[in-house]
Amino acid sequence: MTPRDQGLNPEILVEIARHPGATLAGSIYAVAEADRLAAAERLGRAGLWIHADVIIDDRTHRGVDLSLVRTLAERRIGPLDIHVIAPELDGLIDEICAQEVDRVTFPFESCADYTAVADTAERIRASGAAAWLAVAPATELSAVRPCFDLLDGLLVMLIEPGSTGAADPALATKAGQARPSLPAGVDGGVDARNLGACLQAGAEYVVSGRALLSVTPAPGHLAS
Questions:
Q1: Is the dihedral of CA 164, 130, 176, 109 positive or negative?
Q2: Is residue 218 part of a domain?
Q3: pLDDT in tens, 68-103
Q4: Do 121 and 151 touch, CB atoms closer than 8 A?
Q5: 3 state DSSP class of 53
Q6: What's the number of CA atoms in the CB half-sphere (13 Å) around residue 3?
Q7: Does any domain span residue 4?
Q8: How many domains does one find in the chain?
Q9: How many Cα atoms occupy the beta-carbon half-sphere of 139 within 13 Å?
Q10: How far is Cα 50 from Cα 70, in angstroms, rounded to an integer?
């Protein structure tokens, strides 16, 4: 079965294959809610990570529903990275950590200080998941560097978390600057045009949403 038959962008897969050691994830938040489970299944069959944005803004849930997170965790469809985007983390982190996920990524900007980062990372690790920290575009890497020893990885946002728009590939240099202390990746608006620049800048983990998943399967094949 070809990448297009799988409903995945072949240009992105080819570029990733040119960089040994790079890992690709598909952001299922980028597709319609009714299609997210099927998108996760496609990613799992392709051996890719499943990246799920759980977004709560002003107490309104507008990201991947926690019931789907539970389903994905129970079915073990593929490696599961839950990206929490919320101003308050405590209860949400605990609920996600109750599931058997592989990674929880949480925002630096939602933590009051170094101690809050340490506490959140410790709770995530205690659940058996890896703890990654997401960094918004405006945040300087120097502000985050003191937290490196607490973390398993760093996710550099190329657009504002939870938003849509054009990525700024220049921000991917933060991923390169985090190495070799931490594995680092990029997320937000990554497509076939800017993927190469992100990888060359030092990103080891790449999250792509609409560009990776919005591919029409060939005639005669199921989308999922």
A1: positive
A2: no
A3: 999 999 999 999 999 999 988 988 999 999 999 999
A4: yes
A5: strand
A6: 16
A7: no
A8: 1
A9: 22
A10: 13
